[in-house]
Amino acid sequence: MSDTVPPAEPLQFGWEEWISLPDLGVPALRAKVDTGARTSALHAFDIETFGPSSKPKVRFTVHPIPGRDDLVIPCSAPIIDRREVASSNGEKELRYVIESTLSVNGDAWPIEITLTNRSSMTSRMLLGRQALKDHISIQATDRFLQPELSYDVYHTTRMREVQPNRALRIAVLSREDNYSTRRLVEEGEKRGHSVEVINTTRCYMAINAMAPEVHYDGKRLPRFDAIIPRIGASITPYGTAIIRQFETIGTYCVNGSDGISASRDKLYAHQIMARAKIGMPNTAFAASPKDTGNLIGLVGTAPLIVKLLESTQGKGVVLAETKKAAESVIDAFRGLKANFLVQDFVKEAAGEDIRCLVIGGKVVASMKRTGADGDFRSNLHRGGSAKSVRINKEERETAIRAAKAFNLNMAGVDLLRSEAGPKVLEVNSSPGFEGIENSTGKNIVGKLYDQIESRVRPAPVRRRKTAPAKAKSKQ
């Protein structure tokens, strides 16, 4: 909440006034003044709690303009109480209570607000005695004694500027308790968000046209602001099906299901990169054992790389230093009925590659990885080492183009430095953070949250294309 100072002199209020709630991103709201009510009440929809039980929060949506349910402002705030409130017709309701800043004509002070559905009321908000105490002089026969505001503000680009940094509810789809998962939780909670780790394989789906849902441990999962997929290669088909379900619901997913699926299919991934004219080692694929000689000829001369399509972290990747060795490896893979690629070996890379971390269309960090002694593979999981490296313009542009080709908001792009320019080896849709954060000293996960926040904290949402005419400022 912003610093607030109550007015030195009592303000003159009529029975209805224009107010602002800047902490909630509501710059213009008409409120009814009711000295018979103790606590103020705000018209709120989709009220849902989240966060730890020791510091619970509530999120909700506000429709600030009467009759304009297509205009939606998402809000969140810490819960300060839960209180039984009697409405004007005598019905009692248990409501969440939050604290927010009330702003009127340049003066501002904190007030308590209960959240409730006021769809049957003509006013979006009611101001009770607690909000008026010591600050307001009431003229019960007048209205709009303070400067009038306009609903027009909701139809301008300025709305993005007035939106507060509301807390988000984020799910990390992961089966592992590793550095990357822990950092995602740690960084998100440090920013005030609620971050939950969801085991992907324990999710299941209700697939229907009107109300698609994702369930987990016997319950429907709540509405998340964003999903961060950390889908292991072994569960790619099921994991991407879960992400598709979240996409159907309308949840923002850092990486989409199509991009993850394409990046995991090494053959399709190389075809995508070829179509996008992204530099990569000469690559060939064939199914018939009769084509082994021609397959090798398409790539070039030995040494060659023979790579299983399902390989991860350097497993299933073999260096064949002679043509005969390449034929033997290919025959062995075919004997196992395994699908594989054959690639040219870039000698000048000398067992080193560069991992570029792309987030939101920008390279936020890069590191050089060097293989362990005697190993041409530079994977850190296989004993390789890493250090920060400065990349040139061509390498940066290549990494960005590669991530864009797969429509990935976050990607680890691995490339080799060759005499002909950068060659992309792989685009990883679930890159680890430990090696690159340790080698570069950068807060990479923070960069990811910057991107998430910029995507899910937009200006008010309009739910339909055709909306009724704007409401007049006076009614």
UniProtKB/TrEMBL annotation:
Gene3D superfamilies: 3.40.50.20, Acid Proteases, ATP-grasp fold, A domain, ATP-grasp fold, B domain. It holds the Pfam family Zn_protease. The gene is rimK. Residues 455-475 are annotated as: Disordered. The keyword ATP-binding applies. One of its GO terms (cellular component) is ribosome. Residues 460-475 have a biased composition (Basic residues). It comes from Roseovarius bejariae. Its cofactor is Mg(2+); Mn(2+). GO terms for molecular function: ATP binding; metal ion binding; ribosomal S6-glutamic acid ligase activity. In the C-terminal section; belongs to the RimK family. Residues 270-453 form the ATP-grasp domain. This is Probable alpha-L-glutamate ligase. Keywords: ATP-binding, Ligase, Magnesium, Manganese, Metal-binding, Nucleotide-binding, Protein biosynthesis, Ribonucleoprotein, Ribosomal protein. GO terms for biological process: SOS response; translation.
